[in-house]
Structure to design on (154 residues):
């Protein structure tokens, strides 16, 4: 008898962003390609480090600025996806969301679990040991605590 090999597929892929960006980063590029290969929904999550509720009417100006930067970054990503896919039949399903949390890694892990994400793609940063001890390393904490597969990209 022949054994049927089941191929693992991803239907929901999360790319987690947590710092201001001016261009589309490597992790986002990888997540886009994987989502296209698996015909998966791509969720682009931007986490702002704050304890302020983003749905408050009177946001502090620095939080409002971070939210606007995240929205602008989403637009750049959408434009890049549109340019890259202009000749393809397969349209990438994409969702964007901005959330706030004091602990970025916990926010990413909780969001992924709540939304039944099957793969998290996150960029690892080269930071000093001192910074890592003081601030924590988001990518390593996500790898440690996530319920699903995590791809870290340099």
């Amino acid at each position: 008898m022949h054994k049927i090999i089941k191929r693992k597929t991803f239907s929901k892929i999360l790319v987690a962003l947590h710092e201001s960006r001016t261009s589309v980063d490597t992790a986002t590029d990888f997540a886009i390609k994987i989502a296209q290969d698996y015909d998966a929904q791509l969720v682009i999550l931007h986490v702002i480090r704050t304890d302020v509720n983003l749905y408050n009417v009177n946001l502090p100006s620095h939080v409002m600025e971070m939210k606007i930067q995240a929205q602008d970054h989403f637009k750049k990503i959408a434009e890049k996806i549109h340019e890259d896919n202009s000749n393809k039949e397969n349209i990438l399903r994409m969702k964007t969301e901005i959330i706030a949390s004091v602990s970025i890694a916990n926010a990413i892990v909780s969001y992924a679990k709540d939304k039944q994400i099957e793969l998290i793609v996150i960029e690892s940063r080269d930071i000093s040991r001192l910074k890592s001890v003081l601030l924590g390393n988001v990518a390593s904490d996500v790898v440690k605590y996530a319920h699903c597969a995590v791809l870290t990209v340099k």
About this structure: Residues 61-84 form the longest helix (24 residues). The mean pLDDT is 85. The domain at 12-153 is CATH 3.40.50.620 (Rossmann fold). The helical segments are 26-38, 61-84, 104-114, 129-135, 138-145.
